Amino acid sequence: MAAYVQRVVSLLDEHRRVDAFVVPELVSENHHGEPHYRSGDVGEFASRVSEGSGCEAILNKVVAHVRSSAELEQWCRTALDRGTRNVMLIGGTSRYIPYPGPSVARANAALLPLIRARSGVIGNVLIPHREHEGYRMLTKTRSGAAFFTTQIVFDPAPISELIYEYGRLCGAYEVTPSAVLLSVAPVADEEDLEFVRWLGAEIPARIEGHLVSEDGSASIESAVGTWRAVVRAARAKGVTVPLGLNVEVVSPRHFAVAVKMLAAVEAEIEYTGEGL
Prior knowledge:
The chain is α/β, with parallel strands linked by helices.
């Protein structure tokens, strides 16, 4: 772990435009919805990178698998005690499974006092193609979500429409909109494509064949183009939702490609004046 911690610390030192880094909790489920945790002690990793770089950490938690409110609170207190004050709360993968844990909105509300006491923030994930997602986002905003990250985006149209709808709903209900961070990631081979599909990303057939390149340059170009299109659509419609980017590393094998993508979108954000 030490070598990878130092690798990430060095990266963050080189890219001071980055506001925070996200440490995911990788969980797969069987057909009963029972979890299999694929990541190690993510809390320790987050605290060590944050301490070494001075950059804020955001720690993920899949709340659907939490067995009690006491367990959820203890997880949060442990993260806070380790110095991580920002969290991202995520639901289960299927709406048909009766998970033991709370809904994301209820988990937001439960942890908000603890997080706010440390001046931290809560984030949630949005799914552009899910029905009534704008209303879901509104509910989560009211329950304490300060930002949303998308699944990995390859098509600007669905997320642009959702951002507009979310902004419209916030205006109608007099709610200040939370930030929306577009997730992008390098794709270098078919294995990467399969993994991002497993993560829930939708890849339009018209661009799938153009994404894979050994050096990741095609996906970097796609990410920059997607960002430009979303920003352009938001400005054309007068959308006031704050926008930003989240660069994901889908595989340690392509860490260097992810660094190239980070540099490319960092330069683009400096030009467009949004967030990273």
